[in-house]
Amino acid sequence: MKIYHKKVIALGLSILAALFIFAGCGSNNTEKSTDSSSAQNTADGNTLDKIRKSGVLVVGSSNDAPFAYIDAKTNEFSGVDSDIIKEIARRLGVKKVEMKQIPFENLLISLDNGSVDMVTDAMYIKPERLQKALFTNIWYTETEAVVVKKESDIKSKSDLKDKVIGGQKGMTFLELADKWKNDGIVKDVKVFNSQSELMMAVNTGKIDACVTDGIVAAYTLKQIPHLICVY
User: Fold this and answer.
1) CA 135, CA 122: separation in Å to the nearest integer?
2) Which value, in Å, is the radius of gyration of the alpha carbons in the chain?
3) How far apart are CA 147 and CA 209, in angstroms?
4) How many beta carbons lie within 10 A of that of residue 100, not counting itself?
5) Least confident of 31-40, 41-50, 131-140
6) HSE-up of 32 (CA within 13 Å, CB side)?
7) In this structure, are residues 148 and 221 in contact, taking their beta carbons and an 8 Å threshold?
8) What is the signed CA dihedral for 192, 198, 203, 207, rounded to 10 degrees?
């Protein structure tokens, strides 16, 4: 089973303006495999004006490289999403963009209560989420990945039987892992709060494997040479 992720992000001034003004409006979009950015649910239409007045756009993310993360060396909001959002903010006359690190499962809660102005993350689009946020246009597609230690005897998905795998709380990949458990493909599933915790659990042998976003996995494997992707 492949899950195709589709990264979405604001691509221009008019799109971002619409995000802030019209977020929360109804949508017939039933796409169920989308990685996304979304904007604040607001009824008064003044969110963009408030951001311009404060001079700061606050972006919520779960801090997963390479798309949106805090660079450990510079302590700055970095990544592909960061570059795009900063350029859009510049065109809108917003001088500063700040990222607030929020657990993935709480991103839309923070968006809804106004703690952040927009969210950028691996966000699977579902009908219930469309009731709270407006998602941007798609700009990349990706599948899931299974990550193991290099010395693992797991060489393919068929080797996961009787193994314990992990997934990140709130992510669609955790739902996939739970499905594999229900289907008897894996023995058990453990839940972790972040990608870093998930990968560390694989690296230290707490779990046999994990399932996550393919692009995020590919980036992580460059940082942790003891791990490999087998699926």
Assistant:
1) 12
2) 18
3) 5
4) 17
5) 31-40
6) 7
7) no
8) 50
- Lateral strand order in the sheet of 56-61: 96-101, 56-61, 118-121, 36-39, 134-135
Question: Tokens for 57?
Answer: 């756009």
Going by DSSP bridges, is the β-strand pair 134-135/36-39 parallel, antiparallel, or unpaired?
antiparallel
Instruction: Give dist(CA 157, CA 99) in Å, integer.
Output: 36
The pLDDT of residue 14 is above 70: no
Cβ-proximal residues to 74 (8 Å cutoff; 6+ apart), any chain:
none
Instruction: With CA atoms as reference, report the closest residue to 203 among 214, 217, 189.
Output: 217
Q: State the average pLDDT for the chain.
A: 79
Six-digit token pair at 112? 């809804």
- The amino acid at residue 13 is L
pLDDT of 64-82, one tens digit each? 888 889 998 999 999 988 9
Give pLDDT, residue 28: 32
